[in-house]
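Appendix C. Worked example: Striatin interacting protein 1
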Amino acid sequence: MDAGGNSGGLPVNNKQRAMLPNKAKGEFTRNPRKDSEGLSESPDLEFKYADTDKWAAELSELYSYTEGPEFGLNRKCFEVEFKTHVSDKKWTELDAAQHRAHAMRLLDGLEVIARERRLKAARAILYMAQGTFAECSSEAEVQYWMRYNIFLLLDVGTLSALVELLNMEIDNSAACSSAVRKPAISLADSTDLRVLLNIMYLMVETIQQDDPADKPEWNSIRETFRAELGRFGSPLFNNEPISVMLFGMVTKFCSGHAPHFPMKKVLLLLWKSILFTLGGFEQLLSIKVHRRGELGLPPLPEDSIRVIRSMRAASPPASASDLIDQHPSLLCGLIKQDNLDAFNEKDPYKADDSREDEDDNDDNDNSMEPETFPLERDEVMPPPIPHPPSERVSFPKGLPWAPKVREKDIENFLESSRSKFIGYTLGNDTDTVVGLPRPIHESIKTLKQHKYVSIAELQISKEDEFQKTPLSGGEEEVEMSSTELLYQGILPSLPQYMIALLKILLAAAPTSKAKTDSINILADVLPEEMPTTVLQSMKLGVDVNRHKEIIVKAISAILLLLLKHFKLNHIYQFEYMAQHLVFANCIPLILKFFNQNIMSYITAKNGISVIDFPYCVVHELPELTAESLEAGDNTQFCWRNLFSCINLLRILNKLTKWKHSRTMMLVVFKSAPILKRALKVKQAMMQLYVLKLLKVQTKYLGRQWRKSNMKTMSAIYQKVRHRLNDDWAYGNDLDARPWDFQAEECALRANIERFNSRRYDKSHINPDFLPVDNCLQSVLGQRVDLPEDFQMNYDLWLEREVFSKPISWEELLQ
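Step 2, the predicted output written as C-alpha cells:
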C-alpha cells in the first residue's frame, strides 16, 4: 500500500490525490440531503432582501417559546382591571372616548408605589399593545387592534411613563446584585424589564409600518414619536437618544454587572429604534442621491438596490468528488494521465512560489473539497462530459454595473505613462498629456468618462482644508440630523459599545464553543424549572438555537445600519467606528462565523410556527410531538439566517474596502476557502458580496490559486463592478506592496482624532487659534464676574492699589 493510501497500486500524483474523495473524512458515504455543500444543483433561493422580515415574523421573534404562558397572564391582568369599570361590554365594542378613559386609568396604575400593582398595570398595557387578541379571530384583526391601541397609548403619554420605569429597572441595584449572586439566571429574574421592553418594541415595530389608511393625527403622532426617540436633549432619555440608553444596557450586561438583562429584547429594540429614527436602505439611497445633488456631483450611475434584486444566482463551482460520483469514467481518465503529469510536472514558465503551495495545501487542510472542474487544469484531460440541451450557458447581454474610476487611479496611470515614455512626473496633474502617444490619450479619455467622485472624497478634502487653515477656514455648519445626534451621543463610549456587541455576537455564533468565561446570553430564554421530558427538552433546544439566531440577526443589522449612516453623514465617523471594530477583532470573528456548513445554517429550521405570536393566540394549538418538532416547517430556507449572513458579508466588505492592510488580514486569516464555501448558497446578493471579498485578495493568492479557480474568477468578472485599471486578476498592481498594518492604521487614527477633536472637543481648543477682540469699547463693555471676597474688600483694594499710589500724569500722557 502506497503512502497516499492507494491500495490498488496505481500511481496517483499529489494533484490527482487532491481531487479524489477522502474516505477518512466520510466523503464516500456523504448523505446528499444532510450535506448540501457538495451539491451544485441546489435550487435558487427565492429571498428578497429588505430592512426587516414580514410583520408577523418580526413580532414572533420578540418572544421566546418559554414566554408562552405569559400571554394568558397579560390577558388576565387586563380583564381583571377592565371588568371593574366596564362589566357588560368587550374592549372592541367601546367607543373612542371610553377607550381613552381606560387607557388613562392603566397609565395611572404605572405610577403607584407598590411594585406588584405596577407590574399588573404594565401587563395590562402590554396586552393592549398585543392587540387585545382574545377578542380577535384572525391575525389581520390582531394587527388592526394593535395599531389602534398603540396609537392610543402614545396619544395619552404612555412613553414617558415607560421610560421612567425602564430607567428605574436599569438602575435597580438590588436586582443586579441578586442576579450576580445567583448560580443560574432564568426568565423570572427579568420579568419587569421584559414587560417594559416588549411594550416599547411593539410600539416601535408597529408605528414604523406605514399604512396609507392611517388617520392624519396618527401621522403626526408617528413623527412626534420619531423625534422623541432620536432627539438629543429629549427629557425622556436623560437628554440623549434612546439608542444611547440601550447601548448603555448592552455594556452593563457585558461587564457582568447586570447578567439578568434580557439581551435579545434590548438588541431588537436597539435595532428597530435605529432603523426607525435614521431610516432603512431605501431612505439611505434617497439621502445619498439628495446629498450628491447638494454637493454638485453627478447622479449615481445606477440604482444599486434594483440592480442587485435583478441579478440571478450563479451555479457554484462543482467539486471534483461530485463530478467523479456523477461520471465514474473521469477517475480512469485521471489515472491514465499520470505519466503525462509526471512529464509536465516541471513547468518552465511557473515561478517557484512557496506561498502558492501553502494556499493549495490550505484549501485541502480545511476539509474542503477542491472546487475546480478537471477541465480547468492543464494537466488533466478527461473525456468530454455530455450536457443536456437545457443546461446550455446563456451569456448576459451586458455587465450589471457601470465601471468606475477614482481620481487616484487616473493619477497613477498618468504618472506611470509619463515615467515610461518621457522620463519625468508631474505630481497631481491629470490634464497634461504632452509627449504621450495617441493610445494613452484615448485611455485617459475613457478613464475620465467613468470617473466617480464619492461624497467621502469631498468630505476628506474639506476636512484637510479645515485642518490646514483653522483661522481662515471659518466655522463648519453641522446639520443636526438624527445620525449626527446619535454619533454625538455614542462618541464618548463608542469603543466599549463595539466590544460589547462583538462579545455577544461571539457568544451567539454557532461556531463558538462554550467557555466558562463567556457571557451568558440565555438569561431570557431558560425557564425556572428545567425540562423533564424529551419533548420539553427538544422544544427548549429549538428555542435556544432560535434565540441565538435572532441575536446574530439584530447585531448584524445594527452594525451595518450604523456603518452605512455614519459613512453618509461623515466619512471619519464611519472610519472611527470601523477602526474600533477592526481593533476588536471583528474580521476574524466574521470569518469564524462563516467557517461552518453555511448551507446547513441557512436552511436550519429552528422554529415552531404553531406557537409563534400572533398565530398561537388566535388559533387552536395542535398537540406538539417529537416528530413534528424534528420535521420543522416546510420552508426552503431561514430568512433571518440568510439576512444575517448577507449583513455580515456587507460589514466585512465595508471594513476592508480600499484598506490594503485589512485586505491582507483576509489573506493572512486564510479566508479564501471559507468564502468559497459560502458560494454554495444560490442567492445572488450573498454571492455578490462573497465575490467582492474574493476579488480584493485575488492578486495575493498566487497564480496557482487563480488557475485552479477559474469558475470563481469568471463569476467575479460577470457580477462585481469593474474598476478600470484595477489589476485584480494578475497581481501586477502597485498595491501589491509590503504589508504595514500599523503605519496605515496609525495615520488613519490620527486623522480621525483630529476630526473628532476639532468638531466635538470644544474644551481643548488652542487659545492661540481663538480670534482676538481689538475694539476697546467691546472689551471694556464685557461683563466680568468677580469673586465674592473681592467685592467685600473692594474699598480696601481701591485704597491700596489706586489712592495710595502717586500717578505721574505727564509721563503717562507722553
